[in-house]
């Protein structure tokens, strides 16, 4: 078995798999090193299980808005069983089969850089180490791990992170969630909808989803409040106590009485998985994101042989963006290896600069692409903003009684193109790609006017936004 490949990828998550596959498509040989399960965080402990847990909760909310329909209580054991199916019962043989079929050499074990173009692989089972060498490139695609802030007693309490909550075997009666970002919001709603009797979300700032347009967090907070989820803003945690492993946990707040819960979920962001990656052997600091240029090449490493895609480069912590970066990366590596044209537009990450599209799968769904108003103003664009009540669009009204939602478009007044769009509302996720096209392709508003939305769809929001703008 040869231990030399054109390209070696460390990490077989969605980004790593795509980078390797594109390099092979470009005529190179590739090996991919994976410590745990091929498919990565996304397939087993993130996107897939979280959405499997949210789907019945979302459906219940949808059905509840249409008079004449009713659903019985959710059978949680069946939901968890379906989630288990969705994560293939933590068996990655299907993914490995696909990797073999590309063909990419699959190497199970922990990969660490071992100097220029060398990767040392340590198998988990204590088997012999293997040193792989790359003729052209090494791609880091090791993703990220949950950040547990240094709150006294927190780490010792062994709280849930995204790993444990997405793999939950049962729903805790009383759940405290620390953080107000995407993981916190999605998982608080999933657990509450699946039967948590008391769900409390502690946010240190003033709002949920604070990186998005303010109305998105406000609408979500209203929905949480109606569902009985207790959101506490400006709430700091002083210390955490859990005398018995897995037993009751007491969360002492900076102010006010402590909270007692059966489980504590920490959802306070991510750290890049670079701490134990041998970065020091190539002169890079460990534990930080790997800075890359728009062809995904590490900027601080000489020789241009090291690349980083997905969460590990910190550009956009989203599966679709990691895969997009990986396609560019695999293609550009193949072009550079073969002396081909490495400047084609598809070989560059341009989308991250516009602002990555993202859907938060809560009820209401929150979808955004491009810049928020605040970000656009800060970047110095001549901004004009238009907003519209999504519930007033006929298509939305027909989806269910009491439909509540909102849309906001951020316009570059000089060029008359969209800089960003945000929708919040049930079923809004499918509206997002139209916005992504409009923002990324910089479709002039006067041309967008001629993209006539069908009646009665929620997409008529486009017509309303453009009318608000003055067209
Ligand atoms: C709860 C949750 C829900 C999410 N939902 C969504 C969603 O709905 N949509 C979306 O777009 N994004 C979602 N995300 C974000 C998404 O999961 C990540 O952006 C995505 O997984 C990043 O892909 P990646 O390939 O960069 O890394 P990962 O998926 O983390 O894969 C990295 C792989 O590298 C392996 N690895 C790490 N270090 C080594 C090493 N030294 N040697 C060998 N292997 C190694 C790991 O075992 C892992 O398999 C969610 C995240 C969380 C936490
Ligand atoms: N549907 C999706 O696309 C989806 C779902 C889940 C996660 N993700 C991705 O995963 C990434 C990570 O999600 P996340 O929710 O962990 O991070 P996040 O950055 O979205 O949110 C982190 C939250 O924790 C808070 N926080 C940070 N440190 C804290 C501290 N010490 N004490 C209290 N609060 C603190 C922040 O204020 C913020 O509210 C996101 O950036 C997102 O891109 C995407």
TrEMBL record:
Residues 5-321 form the FAD/NAD(P)-binding domain. Its EC number is 1.-.-.-. It is an enzyme of class 1 (oxidoreductase). Keywords: Oxidoreductase. Residues 357-462 form the Pyridine nucleotide-disulphide oxidoreductase dimerisation domain. One of its GO terms (molecular function) is oxidoreductase activity. The keyword RNA-binding does not apply. Its cofactor is FAD. PANTHER family: MERCURIC REDUCTASE. This is Dihydrolipoyl dehydrogenase family protein.
């Amino acid at each position: 078995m040869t231990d030399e490949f054109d390209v070696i990828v460390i990490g077989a998550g969605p980004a790593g798999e795509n980078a390797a596959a594109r390099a092979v498509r470009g005529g190179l040989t590739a090996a991919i090193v994976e410590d745990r399960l091929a498919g990565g965080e996304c397939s087993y402990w993130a996107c897939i299980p979280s959405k499997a847990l949210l789907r019945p909760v979302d459906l219940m909310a949808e059905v509840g808005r249409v008079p004449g329909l009713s659903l019985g209580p959710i059978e949680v054991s069946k939901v968890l069983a379906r989630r288990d199916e969705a994560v293939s019962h933590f068996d990655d043989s299907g993914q490995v089969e696909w990797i073999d079929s590309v063909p990419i050499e699959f190497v199970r074990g922990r990969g660490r850089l071992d100097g220029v173009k060398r990767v040392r692989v340590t198998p988990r089972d204590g088997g012999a180490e293997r040193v792989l060498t790359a003729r052209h490139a090494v791609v880091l695609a090791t993703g990220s791990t949950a950040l547990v802030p240094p709150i006294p007693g927190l780490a010792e309490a062994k709280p849930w992170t995204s790993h444990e909550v997405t793999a939950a075997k049962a729903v805790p009666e009383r759940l405290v969630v620390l953080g107000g970002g995407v993981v916190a919001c999605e998982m608080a709603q999933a657990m509450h909808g699946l039967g948590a009797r008391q769900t409390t979300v502690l946010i240190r700032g003033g709002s949920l989803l604070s990186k998005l347009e303010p109305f998105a967090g406000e609408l979500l907070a209203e929905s949480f409040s109606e569902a009985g989820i207790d959101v506490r803003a400006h709430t700091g945690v002083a210390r955490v106590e859990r005398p018995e492993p897995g037993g009751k946990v007491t969360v002492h707040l900076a102010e006010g009485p402590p909270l007692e819960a059966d489980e504590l979920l920490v959802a306070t962001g991510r750290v890049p998985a670079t701490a134990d990656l041998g970065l020091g052997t190539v002169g890079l600091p460990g534990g930080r994101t790997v800075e890359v240029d728009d062809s995904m090449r590490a900027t601080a490493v000489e020789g241009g042989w090291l690349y980083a895609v997905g969460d590990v480069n910190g550009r956009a912590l989203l599966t679709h963006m990691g895969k997009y970066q990986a396609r560019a990366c695999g293609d550009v590596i193949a072009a550079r290896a073969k002396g081909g044209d490495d400047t084609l537009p598809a070989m560059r990450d341009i989308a991250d600069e516009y602002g990555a599209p993202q859907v938060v799968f809560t009820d209401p769904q929150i979808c955004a692409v491009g810049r928020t108003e605040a970000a656009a103003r800060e970047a110095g664009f001549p901004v004009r903003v238009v907003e519209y009540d999504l519930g007033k669009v006929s298509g939305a009204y027909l989806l269910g009684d009491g439909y509540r939602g909102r849309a906001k478009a951020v316009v570059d007044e000089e060029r008359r193109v969209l800089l960003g769009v945000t929708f919040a509302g049930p079923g809004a996720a499918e509206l997002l790609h139209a916005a992504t096209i409009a923002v990324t392709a910089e479709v002039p508003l006067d041309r967008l006017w001629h993209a006539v939305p069908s009646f009665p769809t929620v997409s008529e929001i486009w017509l309303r936004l453009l009318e608000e703008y003055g067209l």
